[in-house]
Amino acid sequence: MAKFRNSEESYGILAQVLHWCVAMLIFVQLPLGVYAANLPVSLARLQWLSYHKSIGITILVLALARLAWRWIDAPPALPDTMALWERRAAHAVHWALYVVPVLAMLAGWLYASAAGLSVNWFGILLIPDLVAKNAELAPLFKALHHGLVGVLVLLLIGHVGAAARHAFLVRDNIVQRMLPAAWWGKK
Amino acid sequence: MVGKKVILLRWIWLLPAVLCTPVFAAEECYTAAATGGAVTFRVMQAGAPYTGTFRSFSGEVCFTQGRITRIDAALDPASVDTGLPELDAALKEKDFFALREYPRVTFVSTSVQSQGDTHTAHGTLEIKGNRREVEIVLRSQPADGKISVSGSLVLDRLQYGIGAGEWTNTKWLGAEVKLDIRATLSRKQ
Ligand code: HEM
Ligand code: HEM
Description:
The structure holds 2 protein chains of 2 kinds. By secondary structure, chain A is an all-alpha fold. Chain A is 66% helix and 2% strand.
């Protein structure tokens, strides 16, 4: 039955829950960021940007928790049925999917700090600024946030495309390893 | 006729005292230049403190024997600098400072109590055509030939119509605005 930790053939509950929480929040965060950033100066802009920043801080914490858990609990090895280049590509993209979002979120946080738009996490907790307000640095961090989010989108296209390929073309069990089905699947 | 002359003579001895008053208790006036000073504001946005600066202001402060007797100051809201150009532009529009109609913010004192280097000024603050009586506590300090003054003031932006329309919502933009004033006064020539 359901396993809390990763096993040889699938990811455990914690790894899966964290993966899908982060995935879902990132897919909310992208359109939210575009929507908020393109609003004119208005109450709505303050409000949606505030949600964007709060959700962003949430994802940052979850992403770091994922990394920590991965360090404690090694993921299942990719099967030999995959070519070496496929395994290498998967590993590279997975690592990038850990590192790039974290950097993108730090850049967002740096931008918010430098622009003086400090974050109050859902109106509950005042998040400290990473740098003091600085009108020269702000546009740089903003460009960095946008650039890293762009890289993240490219990685996600590759990642989701690869998942679709495994599910529909290769038809191996790779995608099931990240799905609850694996818990009661074969055995 | 005679009576009037007598009254005049009776008071004539006061004349030297009246003439000498300006010499012993002269009012010295100073002007504040925006360089070496700033007016910063602090307001809550989405639950987090947000700050900005007004770069241009002017003022005249008069002292009599170390006591402030008069303050007359003006601020250009057009000089607002938040670091976000689109926000600076929005602040000049009618929902905020409505610059075209109200190019200046003014403060004129009605009375000032000085105690050492602490001065409590009562006066009229006018923002966007709305006048309110306010109290500003200032501290003064000599600074090589000049006087540096600093003080602060907390006000409710809604009382002055700063943030009309949707901006009257105080959940996303707080009502309370804290102004911090720092100025360097030089002797008026
Ligand atoms: C519809 C969207 C997504 C699908 C279908 C998907 C699918 C998968 C699958 C099937 C795996 C397991 C691969 C294996 O069996 O080894 C996986 C792993 C992974 N996914 Fe996703 N994913 C999605 C979104 C995301 C997003 C938004 C992120 C962003 C951070 C992400 C980051 C990762 C990482 C880092 C791993 C590697 C886990 C590890 O080995 O430690 N995924 N994903
Ligand atoms: C993975 C998480 C994040 C994603 C995917 C993301 C994505 C985006 C996107 C797509 C935009 C709009 C770019 C545009 O169209 O101009 C944006 C803007 C913004 N993001 Fe993020 N963001 C994330 C995390 C964060 C975090 C953690 C913060 C701050 C704490 C943040 C602060 C901002 C701010 C302030 C803007 C507005 C920039 C502007 O005014 O143009 N973001 N974000």
